[in-house]
Structure formats: structure tokens, C-alpha cells
């Protein structure tokens, strides 16, 4: 049994499938995906549909997933006499335009091809994405969250962080949040080329950044938490 973590798949379905083969993911293994499954790349919904088949894949919410979920729920709502006046108000339209400019076109296009039952299943699945997870592997504890612990303050409880701080704010790679040798923060969101100049997993002060820019000409990365082996597509 092994525990793996990936992040920021961004619709790169082919790379995702190649990675599952590369790590030879078995039903006894566990794979955490730290958000931003959707948008930008060509097949985001295909990834979601495949993830839904694997009870040993645990998805966490990313900022792209949260925005896509919010908009798709609104677009998938039946218009009635009670809601037609404010169904797509100005704020929703601005949100929709922002999402489309930020890569939402591929997610929307694939979602529209689903049956009504499939659409409901996908939205239900995304609603269950967790915000933060911790796991013990290889004698260490890993706190996993999409963007990291933004606006970190010593003594700040995980429950005190806002969605903005966990899903959007950049995690400071120079801050050792827990101050213990065996506790690490694992995050995506920030492409590692911005941190170390290379599309590879970046380690700093008990922080591990794993977004290697799969949809930006970089690579999809996967880390085995038990052995710290790194895999790339």
C-alpha cells in the first residue's frame, strides 16, 4: 500500500492516465488530488468521471473547482417563475465571464455534453471535495491543502483559515508552519517554476509544492509520501 499526491491536473486527462499507469495505482493505494482538476486543459470532465470510479482517489477543492462548481450549479438549475428574474444576475454574469477567461471554456463545453443524470452526479461529486486533509505516511505527517496556509500566523487553527487563504493565497515557502521535523505542508496552486525556476517538486522549510505546470508547458508531478519518490509526465 502506498500514498500518493498530485495537484493541478487542469484538464490534462492524457497525462493523468499516464501517471496512473506510471505509479501503477492499485485499489490498495491511496491518491490525494489537491484541487484544480478542471479548466484550461482539453478534458477536465473526463478526469472527473474517471476519478469518480476510484474510491481510493480523494479529491480536495481548488479555486478553479470551487468557481466551476458554483457556476455550473447555477447554469444547471431549472428556470422557474420564482427564480427567473435573478437566475443570472449581473454578479453571476461577471463571475461567468471571469471563469471563461480563466480557462473555464473546456469545462463548460464538456459538461454540456453530459446527460442530465451525469451532470447531477458530477456536481454531487464536486460538492464533496474536501478543503484540507492530513495523512501519516513514512513516519511523517502531511497537511494537504490546495494553495497552502495563506496569511499564516503562529497558533492559528486550521478551522480559522478562510477559503481565500486555503484555496487562493500563495503559501510562503520560507515559513515552517509547524516547526516540527516530521510535519509537512503539501500544496499545489503555485507553479514550481515560479519558486525554483524548474518544473519539478520543490521542497523548502517543511513545505512541499507539487504544481509543476502540467497545463502550462511543464509537467504533471506525483509524489509518493511513503518513500518521497517523485514521478513526472
Automatic annotation (TrEMBL):
<dbReference type="GO" id="GO:0005737">
    <property type="term" value="C:cytoplasm"/>
</dbReference>
<dbReference type="Pfam" id="PF00149">
    <property type="entry name" value="Metallophos"/>
</dbReference>
<dbReference type="InterPro" id="IPR029052">
    <property type="entry name" value="Metallo-depent_PP-like"/>
</dbReference>
<feature type="domain" description="Calcineurin-like phosphoesterase">
    <location>
        <begin position="3"/>
        <end position="190"/>
    </location>
</feature>
<dbReference type="GO" id="GO:0110154">
    <property type="term" value="P:RNA decapping"/>
</dbReference>
<dbReference type="GO" id="GO:0016791">
    <property type="term" value="F:phosphatase activity"/>
</dbReference>
<dbReference type="InterPro" id="IPR050126">
    <property type="entry name" value="Ap4A_hydrolase"/>
</dbReference>
<dbReference type="InterPro" id="IPR004843">
    <property type="entry name" value="Calcineurin-like_PHP"/>
</dbReference>
<dbReference type="GO" id="GO:0008803">
    <property type="term" value="F:bis(5'-nucleosyl)-tetraphosphatase (symmetrical) activity"/>
</dbReference>
<protein>
    <submittedName>
        <fullName>Serine/threonine protein phosphatase</fullName>
    </submittedName>
</protein>
Amino acid at each position: 500500500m502506498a500514498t500518493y499526491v498530485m495537484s493541478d491536473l487542469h484538464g490534462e486527462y492524457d497525462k493523468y492516465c499516464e501517471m496512473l499507469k506510471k505509479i501503477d495505482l492499485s485499489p490498495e493505494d491511496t491518491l490525494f488530488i489537491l484541487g484544480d482538476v478542471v479548466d484550461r486543459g482539453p478534458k477536465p470532465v473526463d478526469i472527473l468521471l474517471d476519478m469518480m470510479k476510484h474510491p481510493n482517489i480523494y479529491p480536495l477543492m481548488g479555486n478553479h473547482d470551487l468557481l466551476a462548481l458554483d457556476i455550473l450549479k447555477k447554469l444547471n438549475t431549472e428556470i422557474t417563475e420564482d427564480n427567473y428574474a435573478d437566475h443570472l444576475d449581473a454578479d453571476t454574469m461577471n463571475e461567468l465571464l471571469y471563469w471563461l477567461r480563466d480557462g473555464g471554456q473546456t469545462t463548460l463545453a464538456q459538461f454540456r455534453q453530459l446527460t442530465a443524470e451525469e451532470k447531477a452526479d458530477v456536481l454531487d461529486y464536486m460538492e464533496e471535495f474536501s478543503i484540507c486533509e492530513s495523512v501519516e505516511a513514512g513516519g511523517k505527517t502531511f497537511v494537504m491543502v490546495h494553495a497552502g496556509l495563506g496569511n499564516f500566523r503562529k497558533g492559528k487553527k486550521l478551522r480559522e483559515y478562510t477559503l481565500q487563504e486555503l484555496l487562493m493565497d500563495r503559501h510562503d515557502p520560507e515559513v515552517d508552519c509547524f516547526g516540527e521535523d516530521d510535519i509537512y505542508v503539501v500544496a499545489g496552486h503555485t507553479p514550481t517554476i515560479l519558486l525554483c525556476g524548474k518544473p519539478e517538486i520543490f521542497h523548502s522549510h517543511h513545505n512541499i509544492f507539487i504544481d509543476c505546470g502540467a497545463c502550462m508547458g511543464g509537467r504533471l508531478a506525483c509524489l509518493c509520501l511513503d518513500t518521497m519518490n517523485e514521478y513526472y509526465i
